[in-house]
Automatic annotation (TrEMBL):
InterPro entries: AAA+_ATPase, ABC_transporter-like_ATP-bd, ABC_transporter-like_CS, P-loop_NTPase, PstB-like. Keywords: ATP-binding, Nucleotide-binding, Transport. The gene is pstB. PROSITE patterns: ABC_TRANSPORTER_1, ABC_TRANSPORTER_2. This is Phosphate ABC transporter ATP-binding protein PstB. PANTHER family: ABC TRANSPORTER I FAMILY MEMBER 17. Gene3D superfamilies: P-loop containing nucleotide triphosphate hydrolases. The lineage of its organism: Bacteria, Bacillati, Cyanobacteriota, Cyanophyceae, Nostocales.
Length: 275
Protein backbone atom coordinates (compact mmCIF):
# COMPACT_ATOMS: atom_id res chain seq x y z
CA UNK A 1 0.00 0.00 0.00
CA UNK A 2 1.28 3.47 -0.79
CA UNK A 3 0.32 6.74 0.81
CA UNK A 4 0.28 9.74 -1.49
CA UNK A 5 2.08 12.89 -0.54
CA UNK A 6 -0.90 15.11 -1.28
CA UNK A 7 -0.87 16.56 2.22
CA UNK A 8 1.95 18.98 1.55
CA UNK A 9 0.76 21.33 4.30
CA UNK A 10 1.62 18.64 6.77
CA UNK A 11 5.05 17.91 5.41
CA UNK A 12 6.39 20.55 7.68
CA UNK A 13 4.59 19.23 10.79
CA UNK A 14 7.21 19.42 13.49
CA UNK A 15 6.91 19.07 17.20
CA UNK A 16 6.79 22.43 18.90
CA UNK A 17 8.39 21.54 22.20
CA UNK A 18 7.21 24.76 23.83
CA UNK A 19 3.62 23.96 23.14
CA UNK A 20 3.01 20.49 24.49
CA UNK A 21 -0.23 19.57 26.18
CA UNK A 22 1.09 16.34 27.61
CA UNK A 23 4.52 15.12 28.52
CA UNK A 24 4.52 11.39 29.18
CA UNK A 25 7.59 10.40 31.17
CA UNK A 26 8.13 6.70 31.68
CA UNK A 27 4.48 5.71 32.01
CA UNK A 28 3.87 1.97 32.54
CA UNK A 29 0.52 0.31 33.01
CA UNK A 30 -0.21 -2.95 34.82
CA UNK A 31 -3.44 -4.93 34.94
CA UNK A 32 -3.58 -7.07 38.06
CA UNK A 33 0.23 -7.15 38.32
CA UNK A 34 0.81 -7.98 34.65
CA UNK A 35 2.74 -5.35 32.74
CA UNK A 36 0.58 -4.34 29.74
CA UNK A 37 2.47 -1.27 28.52
CA UNK A 38 6.22 -0.65 28.80
CA UNK A 39 7.67 2.74 29.75
CA UNK A 40 6.27 5.31 27.34
CA UNK A 41 8.01 8.63 26.70
CA UNK A 42 5.99 10.96 24.50
CA UNK A 43 5.16 14.64 24.05
CA UNK A 44 1.76 15.56 22.67
CA UNK A 45 1.72 18.90 20.82
CA UNK A 46 -1.26 21.23 21.26
CA UNK A 47 -4.04 21.72 18.70
CA UNK A 48 -2.97 18.83 16.55
CA UNK A 49 -4.51 15.47 15.74
CA UNK A 50 -2.40 12.59 17.01
CA UNK A 51 -3.20 9.06 15.83
CA UNK A 52 -2.30 5.96 17.85
CA UNK A 53 -1.87 2.98 15.53
CA UNK A 54 -0.62 -0.58 15.96
CA UNK A 55 -1.82 -4.17 16.14
CA UNK A 56 -4.44 -5.42 18.57
CA UNK A 57 -3.38 -5.55 22.22
CA UNK A 58 -0.35 -3.24 21.92
CA UNK A 59 -1.67 -0.79 24.52
CA UNK A 60 -3.13 2.04 22.44
CA UNK A 61 -6.39 2.28 24.40
CA UNK A 62 -4.53 1.66 27.64
CA UNK A 63 -2.32 4.71 27.05
CA UNK A 64 -5.26 6.76 25.80
CA UNK A 65 -7.10 6.10 29.07
CA UNK A 66 -4.07 7.34 31.02
CA UNK A 67 -4.54 10.87 29.71
CA UNK A 68 -7.70 11.42 31.74
CA UNK A 69 -7.16 8.74 34.36
CA UNK A 70 -9.91 6.50 33.02
CA UNK A 71 -7.76 3.52 34.01
CA UNK A 72 -8.56 4.49 37.63
CA UNK A 73 -12.01 3.04 36.95
CA UNK A 74 -10.63 -0.38 35.98
CA UNK A 75 -10.16 -2.67 39.00
CA UNK A 76 -6.55 -3.87 39.21
CA UNK A 77 -5.18 -1.28 36.77
CA UNK A 78 -2.07 0.54 38.01
CA UNK A 79 -0.22 3.38 36.32
CA UNK A 80 3.39 4.22 37.13
CA UNK A 81 5.55 7.10 35.93
CA UNK A 82 4.77 10.73 35.37
CA UNK A 83 2.20 12.15 33.02
CA UNK A 84 2.28 15.93 32.92
CA UNK A 85 -0.73 17.80 31.63
CA UNK A 86 0.29 21.41 31.11
CA UNK A 87 3.13 21.02 33.64
CA UNK A 88 1.11 19.25 36.35
CA UNK A 89 1.44 15.55 37.01
CA UNK A 90 -2.11 14.21 36.67
CA UNK A 91 -1.14 11.20 38.79
CA UNK A 92 -0.44 13.46 41.74
CA UNK A 93 -2.80 12.17 44.48
CA UNK A 94 -4.10 15.72 44.94
CA UNK A 95 -5.52 15.84 41.40
CA UNK A 96 -9.31 15.58 41.22
CA UNK A 97 -9.85 13.06 38.41
CA UNK A 98 -13.50 14.07 37.92
CA UNK A 99 -12.46 17.68 37.25
CA UNK A 100 -9.64 16.43 35.05
CA UNK A 101 -12.12 14.54 32.87
CA UNK A 102 -14.02 17.76 32.25
CA UNK A 103 -10.89 19.22 30.67
CA UNK A 104 -9.92 16.03 28.91
CA UNK A 105 -13.07 14.60 27.37
CA UNK A 106 -13.52 11.17 25.84
CA UNK A 107 -15.44 9.78 22.89
CA UNK A 108 -15.83 6.02 22.78
CA UNK A 109 -15.86 3.39 20.07
CA UNK A 110 -19.61 2.81 20.24
CA UNK A 111 -21.71 5.97 20.36
CA UNK A 112 -23.20 6.05 23.86
CA UNK A 113 -25.79 8.85 24.09
CA UNK A 114 -27.74 9.03 27.34
CA UNK A 115 -31.29 7.63 27.02
CA UNK A 116 -32.56 11.21 27.14
CA UNK A 117 -33.51 13.90 24.66
CA UNK A 118 -30.93 15.34 22.26
CA UNK A 119 -31.14 18.60 24.22
CA UNK A 120 -30.57 16.90 27.57
CA UNK A 121 -27.66 14.90 26.20
CA UNK A 122 -25.85 18.22 25.83
CA UNK A 123 -27.26 20.16 28.78
CA UNK A 124 -27.00 17.45 31.43
CA UNK A 125 -23.24 17.62 32.12
CA UNK A 126 -22.90 21.42 32.17
CA UNK A 127 -26.02 21.74 34.39
CA UNK A 128 -24.70 19.14 36.80
CA UNK A 129 -21.50 21.19 36.98
CA UNK A 130 -23.40 24.39 37.78
CA UNK A 131 -23.06 26.05 34.36
CA UNK A 132 -24.15 29.66 34.82
CA UNK A 133 -24.43 30.75 31.15
CA UNK A 134 -27.36 30.48 28.75
CA UNK A 135 -27.92 26.75 28.40
CA UNK A 136 -29.92 27.03 25.13
CA UNK A 137 -27.01 28.85 23.54
CA UNK A 138 -24.55 26.27 24.84
CA UNK A 139 -26.65 23.42 23.39
CA UNK A 140 -26.87 25.12 19.99
CA UNK A 141 -23.21 26.10 19.94
CA UNK A 142 -22.04 22.59 20.88
CA UNK A 143 -24.28 20.95 18.26
CA UNK A 144 -23.10 23.43 15.63
CA UNK A 145 -19.44 22.78 16.45
CA UNK A 146 -20.08 19.06 16.14
CA UNK A 147 -21.65 19.67 12.70
CA UNK A 148 -24.99 18.14 13.61
CA UNK A 149 -27.14 21.19 14.42
CA UNK A 150 -28.91 21.31 11.05
CA UNK A 151 -29.88 17.65 11.33
CA UNK A 152 -31.33 17.88 14.84
CA UNK A 153 -32.44 21.48 15.41
CA UNK A 154 -36.11 20.61 14.78
CA UNK A 155 -36.15 17.57 17.05
CA UNK A 156 -34.21 18.54 20.14
CA UNK A 157 -36.84 16.87 22.36
CA UNK A 158 -36.48 13.51 20.65
CA UNK A 159 -34.31 10.79 22.12
CA UNK A 160 -30.61 10.87 21.24
CA UNK A 161 -30.69 7.10 20.92
CA UNK A 162 -33.15 7.42 17.99
CA UNK A 163 -30.50 9.07 15.79
CA UNK A 164 -28.39 7.14 13.28
CA UNK A 165 -25.05 5.75 14.46
CA UNK A 166 -23.07 8.52 12.78
CA UNK A 167 -25.39 11.18 14.20
CA UNK A 168 -25.15 9.61 17.65
CA UNK A 169 -21.35 9.78 17.48
CA UNK A 170 -21.46 13.46 16.52
CA UNK A 171 -23.98 14.01 19.35
CA UNK A 172 -21.48 12.40 21.74
CA UNK A 173 -18.75 14.69 20.39
CA UNK A 174 -21.10 17.66 20.94
CA UNK A 175 -21.71 16.42 24.49
CA UNK A 176 -17.96 16.31 25.11
CA UNK A 177 -17.50 19.79 23.60
CA UNK A 178 -20.26 21.25 25.82
CA UNK A 179 -18.01 20.62 28.82
CA UNK A 180 -15.52 23.05 27.25
CA UNK A 181 -12.62 20.62 27.24
CA UNK A 182 -9.05 21.30 26.26
CA UNK A 183 -8.37 17.85 24.85
CA UNK A 184 -10.55 15.21 23.20
CA UNK A 185 -9.58 11.56 23.49
CA UNK A 186 -11.20 9.35 20.87
CA UNK A 187 -11.04 5.57 21.02
CA UNK A 188 -11.76 4.25 17.52
CA UNK A 189 -14.61 6.76 17.10
CA UNK A 190 -15.46 5.60 13.58
CA UNK A 191 -15.19 1.84 13.94
CA UNK A 192 -18.95 1.41 14.32
CA UNK A 193 -19.80 3.88 11.54
CA UNK A 194 -20.41 3.57 7.81
CA UNK A 195 -17.88 5.22 5.46
CA UNK A 196 -19.95 8.39 4.94
CA UNK A 197 -20.46 8.93 8.68
CA UNK A 198 -16.75 8.18 9.25
CA UNK A 199 -15.78 10.87 6.78
CA UNK A 200 -18.12 13.31 8.52
CA UNK A 201 -16.43 12.60 11.85
CA UNK A 202 -13.02 12.99 10.20
CA UNK A 203 -14.04 16.36 8.72
CA UNK A 204 -15.31 17.36 12.12
CA UNK A 205 -11.98 16.45 13.76
CA UNK A 206 -10.14 18.60 11.23
CA UNK A 207 -12.41 21.52 12.21
CA UNK A 208 -12.14 20.85 15.92
CA UNK A 209 -8.36 20.76 16.01
CA UNK A 210 -8.35 24.54 15.62
CA UNK A 211 -9.52 24.61 19.22
CA UNK A 212 -8.73 21.27 20.74
CA UNK A 213 -5.96 18.73 20.88
CA UNK A 214 -7.29 15.39 19.61
CA UNK A 215 -5.71 12.03 20.38
CA UNK A 216 -7.34 9.22 18.43
CA UNK A 217 -6.87 5.46 18.48
CA UNK A 218 -7.58 4.09 15.02
CA UNK A 219 -7.19 0.82 13.18
CA UNK A 220 -7.84 2.60 9.92
CA UNK A 221 -4.49 3.51 8.41
CA UNK A 222 -6.02 5.65 5.68
CA UNK A 223 -7.88 7.56 8.34
CA UNK A 224 -4.69 8.17 10.31
CA UNK A 225 -2.98 9.31 7.12
CA UNK A 226 -5.86 11.56 6.10
CA UNK A 227 -6.30 13.47 9.31
CA UNK A 228 -3.47 13.00 11.81
CA UNK A 229 -0.64 15.52 12.03
CA UNK A 230 1.39 13.10 14.14
CA UNK A 231 1.27 9.35 14.49
CA UNK A 232 2.44 7.08 17.30
CA UNK A 233 3.07 3.46 16.32
CA UNK A 234 2.77 0.82 19.05
CA UNK A 235 3.65 -2.85 18.90
CA UNK A 236 3.87 -5.84 21.23
CA UNK A 237 6.90 -7.75 22.41
CA UNK A 238 7.20 -10.92 24.44
CA UNK A 239 9.15 -11.07 27.71
CA UNK A 240 11.34 -13.98 28.87
CA UNK A 241 8.26 -15.70 30.37
CA UNK A 242 6.34 -15.50 27.13
CA UNK A 243 4.09 -12.66 28.33
CA UNK A 244 3.11 -10.07 25.73
CA UNK A 245 3.33 -6.39 26.51
CA UNK A 246 2.81 -3.24 24.52
CA UNK A 247 5.38 -0.59 23.72
CA UNK A 248 5.60 2.67 21.84
CA UNK A 249 7.93 2.06 18.90
CA UNK A 250 7.92 5.31 16.98
CA UNK A 251 6.40 8.78 17.09
CA UNK A 252 6.71 11.13 14.19
CA UNK A 253 4.86 13.45 11.85
CA UNK A 254 2.31 11.38 9.95
CA UNK A 255 3.89 12.14 6.59
CA UNK A 256 7.29 11.01 7.89
CA UNK A 257 5.84 7.94 9.58
CA UNK A 258 3.94 6.74 6.52
CA UNK A 259 6.57 7.54 3.93
CA UNK A 260 9.84 7.16 5.79
CA UNK A 261 9.25 5.01 8.89
CA UNK A 262 12.34 4.91 11.07
CA UNK A 263 11.92 1.31 12.24
CA UNK A 264 11.42 -1.97 10.42
CA UNK A 265 8.46 -2.73 12.71
CA UNK A 266 6.65 0.44 11.68
CA UNK A 267 7.53 -0.09 8.03
CA UNK A 268 6.15 -3.64 8.09
CA UNK A 269 2.96 -2.56 9.81
CA UNK A 270 2.34 0.42 7.58
CA UNK A 271 3.00 -1.53 4.43
CA UNK A 272 0.51 -4.16 5.60
CA UNK A 273 3.01 -6.93 6.18
CA UNK A 274 1.61 -7.62 9.66
CA UNK A 275 -1.16 -6.54 12.03
N1 LIG B 1 -9.51 -4.03 31.64
C1 LIG B 1 -8.46 -4.81 31.40
N2 LIG B 1 -8.14 -5.80 32.25
C2 LIG B 1 -7.09 -6.63 32.02
N3 LIG B 1 -6.28 -6.52 30.92
C3 LIG B 1 -6.56 -5.55 30.05
C4 LIG B 1 -7.66 -4.64 30.22
N4 LIG B 1 -7.68 -3.80 29.18
C5 LIG B 1 -6.65 -4.15 28.38
N5 LIG B 1 -5.99 -5.20 28.91
C6 LIG B 1 -4.80 -5.86 28.31
O1 LIG B 1 -3.81 -4.87 28.09
C7 LIG B 1 -3.19 -5.08 26.82
C8 LIG B 1 -3.37 -3.85 25.96
O2 LIG B 1 -4.75 -3.70 25.67
P1 LIG B 1 -5.34 -2.43 24.91
O3 LIG B 1 -6.83 -2.60 24.87
O4 LIG B 1 -4.80 -1.21 25.50
O5 LIG B 1 -4.71 -2.62 23.46
P2 LIG B 1 -5.11 -1.93 22.09
O6 LIG B 1 -3.83 -1.70 21.37
O7 LIG B 1 -5.98 -0.75 22.32
O8 LIG B 1 -5.92 -3.11 21.40
P3 LIG B 1 -7.11 -3.07 20.33
O9 LIG B 1 -6.54 -2.44 19.10
O10 LIG B 1 -7.46 -4.51 20.13
O11 LIG B 1 -8.24 -2.29 20.93
C9 LIG B 1 -3.83 -6.33 26.21
O12 LIG B 1 -3.01 -7.43 26.51
C10 LIG B 1 -5.14 -6.44 26.95
O13 LIG B 1 -5.55 -7.76 27.07
Amino acid sequence: MTYSNSRSKLDSATIDHDNNVFNVEGVKVYYGGLLALLDVYLKIPAKQIIAFIGPSGCGKSTLLRCFNRMNDLIPGAKVEGRLNYRDHNIYDPKVNSVKLRRQIGMVFQRPNPFPKSIYENISFGPRANGYKGNIDELVEDSLRRAAIWDEVKDKLKEKGTALSGGQQQRLCIARAIAMKPDVLLMDEPCSALDPISSRQVEELCLELKQQYTIIMVTHNMQQAFRIADFTAFFNTETDEHGKRRGKLVEFNSTVQMFNFPQTKEAEDYISGRFG
